Amino acid sequence: MVPLLVVLPLVGAGLALAAAGRTWVQRTVSMTVLSCMLVLAGVLLWAADQQGAQVVYVGGWLPWEGVVLVVDRIAALMVIVSTTVTMSVLGYSIGQGASSFDDESDGHSPLPVFHPTILVLAAGVTTTFISGDLFHIYVGFEMLLAASFVLLTLGGTAERVRAGTTYVLVSLLSSLIFLMAISMVYSSTGTINLALLAQRIGDLPSGTIAVMQLMLLIGFAVKAAVFPMSGWLPDSYPTAPAPITAVFAGLLTKVGIYAMIRVQTLLFPSSRLDDLLLWASLLTMVVGILGAIVQDDIKRMLSFTLVSHIGYMLFGIAVGSTAGLAAAIFYVVHHILIQTTLFLVTGLIERVGGSSDTSRLGNLARISPVVGILFFIPAMNLGGIPPFTGFLGKVGLLQAGVQDGGWLAMTVVVGSVLTSLLTLYAVARVWGRAFWSENPEGITGSGPIRGGHHEALGLGVLVPTSTLVAITVGLTVVAGPLYDITTRAAVDLMLRQPYLEAVLGPGVTL
């Protein structure tokens, strides 16, 4: 079952590409593949939680000879969440048609390359989550880069190509740093398998370990948009169509965070860079949210809050405790769903109001109460209003910071509270200007005019968005069991022994 998580989307991408002239076939293939992935990931999460990590030696090669695929609790949980948002985004794109992808399209379906590319993106995300060695993680990153560049530039407008060029240059730079780090690790230890590295890396000189750790963290931090390497994100994401921006915001930065969690806990458990990570988390929170509160465009505001809240996840990693790690994993799950939902809702706002610029919007609560509700619920969740998961995740991170007791950790605690308040201010500002204030442009609620016809909301876009909103609310209901799973995942990550025994066999020691 484990290899199918990667094989299915790649085979599906090939079938969808072969069916480029048949839209209904592409839709059927894409949704069927993602549905199967979701079921497989659910079964594997149960197996990992009950029996331990599920391991496959690809091609029968042993860990020191070939690729190993590992699905433990955190990997299975990430695949479930990523597949859920990908399905929702795909459903939204099917419902909205092609009008926001390509101005010259037929208006009934996304471009033929969209379905194959989104499946390659899903395969890249999953590859990164279940890889048991550094180079295979790198391969997953490159699959993501290729697919995301195509998606970001769909439609071929000058603005999208410019944003895509910036994105690909930054991503290639981070990939180059990551590849250099892999080369250094292999030349020093003779392996890139994570389990074997956990055994061998402690024998290296402390200076060599520090350089390796720093290079790996920089490569991952660029992809995760950690300050000061986050300037590319607010300029790249808002130019893409709503479903593309949604899947980017939900998934791509979290892949970098996941890689940081895996490497920090497995290879560098006694980190000498925790203080640096704490400073980075604080600056990422504060600088990101200061950028958000001055934005008039909703997409740019959400892009800055995306950067800001990466700091919360980094905070949990930097604390270096089981409580901090459990809260960080919980917050990753929460944030993937919330950010994706908010960007999809922004797409609905654009369809109703003709713009995502709050200076050109107004009175949307009366014009479209459904859109108002769909925005209000995840916005309050993002702002950390109880009892939503945003509040629960932040409380867990604050408790971990207080338990740490250091002055720097306490400073980040204060910064995280301030960031949460400013996040609430940012979304309340959008609500006040776009939904409550009088409309300066005289919007009547018929939607923007595209190609001579009015574009209105339909079930095709409302159902996927409403489903994601319902999932975010449902996540609050099952927050207790979910937090238990993330806590068990954090315990295994901190112990390291369960991972090593799953990959290398019983009785291995660090």
Describe the protein's architecture and organization.
This protein is mostly helical and 510 residues long. The protein is 73% helix and 2% strand. The chain has 20 helices and 4 strands. The protein has a two-stranded antiparallel sheet. Helix 3 (73-96) packs parallel to helix 13 (322-353), helix 5 (134-152) packs antiparallel against helix 6 (158-189) and helix 13 packs antiparallel against helix 16 (389-404). The protein is globular, with a radius of gyration of 22 Å. 55% of the residues are buried. The model is unreliable at 102-109 and 444-454 (pLDDT under 50).
What descriptive keywords fit this protein?
globular; 20 helices; 2% strand; single chain; mainly alpha
Give me the number of helical elements: 20
Largest pleated sheet: 2 strands, antiparallel
| Spatial gap, N to C terminus | 29 Å
Strand order of the largest sheet: 1-2
Q: What gyration radius follows from the Cα positions, in whole Å?
A: 22 Å
Beta-strand content estimate: under 5%
Globally, the shape reads: globular
Would you count the extended β strands for me? 4
Helix content: over 70%
The chain-level structural class is: mainly alpha
The overall average pLDDT, rounded, is 86
Poorly predicted ranges: 102-109, 444-454
- SSE order, one letter for each helix or strand: HHEEHHHHHHHHHHHHHHHEEHHH
